[in-house]
Structure formats: C-alpha cells, structure tokens
Amino acid sequence: MNHGYEFVDDEVVMNVWAPKIKDMMVLRVKDGVKFPMNGSSGGFKSANVRLPPGERYYFLADGQRIPDPASRFQPDGISGPSEIIKNDYEGVKKWKTYDLKDAIIEEIHIGTFTKEGTYESAEKMVDHFVNLGINHIELMPLNQTYGTRNWGYDGVFIFAPSYSYGRPENLRRFIDTLHENNINVILDVVYNHIGPFGNILGILGDYFSKSYINPWGQALNFDGPGSDAVRSFILQNVKYWIEEYKFDGLRIDATHAIFDSSPVHILKEISTTIKSLEHKLGRKIKLIAEDDKNDSAIVDRLEDCGYGFDASWNGDFHHSVHSYLTSENRGYYEDYGNFTDIIDCLKNGYLYNGKYSKYLRKTRGTVFAGSRRKLVVFDSNHDQVGNRAFGERPVSLVGDLKARLFAAIVLLSPFTPMLFMGEEYGETNPFLFFIQTEDNEFANIVRNGRMNEFKDFSWNGNIPDPSSIESFDKSKLSWKLTDNRGKQFIEFYKKMINLRKRIVSDKYSVSSENNVIRIDYEKASVYISFSDKQQIIKQGPKGTRDETAIDPFSILVQDT
User: Fold this and answer.
1) pTM
2) Which residues does 299 contact at the CB level (< 8 Å), separation at least 6?
3) Class of residue 448 by CB neighbours under 10 A (exposed 0-12, middle 13-18, buried 19+)
C-alpha cells in the first residue's frame, strides 16, 4: 500500500502507516470537518475524502493533531497543516541525459545560492552554468526541516520540498529550465535518520530502529518488526523524486550510517528501484553514495554482489590534496599530508584501501578495481567547507594560485569532478553551518557538539553561532563575476572544464618527479606542479620531446 495520497476521480485516497494509533481521522482545516480513517492490513489507516488540490488538512491521531508524515508540502512549516498537491504540470518531456563519464557536477544550496534563496532566483542563474560548462547540478537536501534556515540534513518530511525556497511548482519549473539547457539535476536525500524537531513518525509506528545508534538522530528501522512498511516508505520516496519532479539522480547521504541486516540490504533495493525506473522512463538515472568506509562494493554491480550504485564520493582524494597544500594534520587529516598520498589516490582510487588508519585506529577500506569515473572528487563541498569552524573555502586557506591548482587536479583527474557553488569565480564568503531554532536547549546541543568536534582540529576562537541569522547571511554567495579576479577564475575554470571534456579518458597512467605529477591520457599528458620552485620536465613518451620549464603551482598540458 502506498504512503500519502492518490487521486481517484474526484476523491483523494489517503493512507498512513500508523499501527500504534487506534483512532485516526483526517481534519479539513477550512471548516473543521473530520473524516474517519479505517484500519486495513499491516497497520495502515485509509480514507476516501474530498480534498481538492490546494486544500489543507491535518491527521488526528488518537486526538493529537499532526501533519501527514508523507506530506507533499508544508506551507507553514513542520507544525502547520499539510497541503494537497497534484502534479498536473507537464513541462519538459524529453531532455538530454548523461552518463557519469561525461559529468561535470556543481553542488549548490538553494537558500544561500542567491540573495533571495529561492528556486525562482536560482533559475535566473542557469546561463552561468551553461557558460561554465556544467552539465549536472546537485541540490543539497530540499526536504522540510525545522525553521527556514537549514542545510537540509535534519529533514522531517521527506516528501515535502521546503517552503523556504518556494512552492513545488517553482521547483518543477527550475528543474525544467535546467533540462531545457541540457543540465541534469541530482538531489541529495537523507535515509539514515529523521530530524529531531517535528518528528512525528515515532508516535505512529516503529519507524525507528531499536538496535542501532545513528550519530545524528534516530536510525530508521530497515530490519526490525514493522520494517516492511518503513522500507516501502523510503522506496516510494525514491520513486517520488524521480517520477514527480523528474530528477536525474539521487545522492544518498552517509550510506555507511544506514544499518540493515536484512537478506537484501535497503541500499540494494534502492539500486534495484532505480534500475526499474530507468527501464520504465527510458532515461539514465544516477545513484551516488556518500560512503565513509571506502567500501568498493557500493559501486560494484548487483550481479557481482555489489550495491549497484553508479558512484561514491572519494574523501581520500580531497583530504590528500587539502592536507598537503594547507599542512593541516589534525582530526581526520592526521591520516594524510604526504605528497605520495596524492599519487596513490590517482593510481588506486582510494588511499585507504585496506590500510591502517591512525585516526580511526583500525584498518579502513577495500581495493578499488572499478572505473575511476565511479569516484566523485572535489576541492570543496558542503562538508569540507561548512564543517570547519569558520567555514573557510580553499581559496581563503591557501590563496588563489594554490586554489586553482587544487581545482585543476580535480577537473583533470580520471575521477568524476564536482565543484562547490562559488568556487568557479573565487568566492571568499564562508559557508557556515546554520540552523534556525527557537529551542535554546537544542541550539546549545548543536553548539556544544560542534565545539567538541573542533577540539580534534584545534579550532578555537569566537566560533560563529549556527543558530544566528548572521551565520546564514554570511554564507550567501557574493556573485562577484565581473571584477578582474572573478573573470580570471571563470576563464580558468572554463579552460579546465573544456580540457577535461577533450582529453580525460579511462585509460591513463600516473608518475611524478620533483613534486610534479604527470597524468598520461591517450590524447594528452597533464603536468601539475606542486613544487614551490620552477621545475624542468621532459615532455612526451619516455622523454622523447624537448625539456620544458613548468612554473610553481601551475598546470601544463601537452597533446600526444
């Protein structure tokens, strides 16, 4: 049975899994009329009601007024009524889709991407992506959270796009505009926990695990009593974003924190669902994991006993380059910092592929034997910037020259590259962690928790308050595109992206000498200097070409 509602003729068929509730009703807000819900198999409650699109309603669960746990829109936030949304917007029916081998991704947070922080204002910036050469946009989570300011990883209503950014139809038009400009759209989703404030699932049924502890909230119940309904809740959400909003893929947050001992892991079911949707819809749909375990099984094929994902984020590559350029060696950067780490990542995919981690005090990772396109790399992202105490971007830590070097090795690497919004024009505004809450106890928990995390990195001082409006406002992009510095950055990124599209291939080899990395592709050799002195290199196969000087922290590309 489906969660939420379906339109049947002039009525809405409502379903909610609520085995803990004896008496369930639908409350129509405009006139207070109540519609009784009948119990059915498996703990579901159902009712046929007349609620046209735009109508607002609550559930009455044993007398307690709550929103619909599968709400499609919360126009007044997590405590307000749910709104009936009917997807009768046709929009673009066919558009160009890409395999990951052709992907250039940029991650954005709608609320800070523009001054207005809306889908409509973001839609006006699509030409910027086209001009740059970006063909994938990855949206940080959109699901409804507490308040109006949030990264999105504390989502409460996973089917409801946040009202802070606009209405559902605004989101659909934004996606359509991207598709019209040959840009695919990936949505970041969170299936490892539900946010703490406004979380009503626990009063309805056993949505949460009694066996596992999640670092960020209650872990979802994928393998205990009642887990069939929870699994269907998540799998329906996967289909919902792809079919109703026409997303071209999903990025699954923290797959290492999704616990499931079932014969078929929920991640494999998600992958199978995506494959079925590809066949049904006739278009490529990407599935990307954030896996902290360096487990190559996440991208192995289902028929090879893997999880069947298309790609996984590769933190090792970021940490290796970042630690070397910044000399940071505290916290998880303790495991990185040698120049050879960068070489090992380029050669092997993971650095920790069965090696002992000093930071974790245990062996980490597996050997990665797949295409390097299955690993997504970056010089920054929401975590690596926003989880710093002061939200500094690489350009603020190492300067323009080294920041562009970092971008170059990402864009000219054999991996799949991802940018973080603003880096392409040298954005210096920080990206801070921010929330909105009127609960002082929760604000203190968040504040103290982050302070404890920062101790590992020796980040001290007057650390910005996540719950302050200033932290949010400071994180908005400045969009300084037209000054000389901005133009130089843009032209550099365009050049690197065009080079990538022309020369990068799956077949490659890596070598280094005097802190100059050489990546030999079929069409060209790429030299990336991490040296602070000018170096002499021998270009061409086996040094058959003339010797050439390469400047400190610069890039040289030689066609073969």
Assistant:
1) 0.96
2) 289, 306, 307, 309, 310, 311, 312, 370, 374
3) exposed
User: What distance in Å separates the CA atoms of residue 404 and residue 410, rounded to the nearest whole number?
Assistant: 10
**Residue 497 neighbours by CB distance under 10 Å:** 21
77 and 163 Cβ atoms separated by less than 8 Å: yes
> For residue 240, what is the enclosing H or E element?
helix 227-244
Nearest to 467 by CA among 218, 217, 197, 282: 197
Q: SS3 sequence, 128-180?
A: HHHHHCCCEEEECCCEECCCCCECCCCCCEEEEECHHHCCHHHHHHHHHHHHH
Please state, in angstroms and rounded to a whole number, the distance separating the CA atoms of residues 454 and 432: 14
Residue type present at position 286? K
How far is residue 439's CA from residue 447's CA, in Å, rounded to a whole number? 12
State how far the Cα of 431 lies from the Cα of 448, in Å rounded to an integer.
19
442 exposure class (CB count in 10 Å sphere: 0-12, 13-18, 19+): middle
* Last residue within a domain, chosen from 62, 83, 104: 83
Cβ neighbors of 92 (< 8 A, separation 6 or more) are 176, 179, 180, 246
| Residue 446 pLDDT > 90 | no
Asked if residues 248 and 184 have their Cβ atoms less than 8 Å apart, the reply is: yes
Q: Are 66 and 58 in contact (CB under 8 A)?
A: yes
Name the catalytic one among 290, 310, 316, 344.
290
Query: Using 50, 70 and 90 to split pLDDT, how confident is the model at 546?
Result: confident
Residue 77 lies in a domain: yes
Total of domains in the chain:
2
Residue 198's contacts (CB-CB under 8 Å, 6 or more residues apart) are: 77, 78, 79, 146, 156, 157
Is 154 contained in some domain? no
Q: Return the ∠ at Cα 381 (arms to 284 and 105), rounded to 5°.
A: 30
For residue 253, indicate whether it is catalytic.
Answer: yes
Distance CA 18, CA 38 (A): 11
**Residues 113 and 421 sit within 8 Å (Cβ to Cβ):** yes
Q: Which two tokens stand for residue 436?
A: 């909105």
Domain that holds residue 22: 4-83
Give yes or no for residue 543 having a pLDDT over 60.
no
Q: Who contacts 354 (Cβ-Cβ below 8 Å, separation ≥6)?
A: 363, 364, 365, 366, 367
CATH number at residue 54: 2.60.40.10
How far is it, in rounded angstroms, from Cα 356 to Cα 396? 32
- Kindly report, residue by residue over 168-196, the tens digit of the pLDDT: 999 999 999 999 999 999 999 999 999 88
Instruction: Locate 19 and state its tokens.
Output: 């085995």
- Secondary structure of residue 467 in the 3-state scheme: coil
pLDDT in tens, 391-444: 999 999 999 999 999 999 999 999 999 999 999 999 999 999 999 876 777 777
Structure token pair of residue 13: 């068929």
Asked if the structure places residue 19 within a domain, the reply is yes
Residue 522 lies in a domain: yes
Domain end (from 83, 114, 134): 83
Selected catalytic residue, list 123, 223, 253, 291? 253
Active site residue 248: no
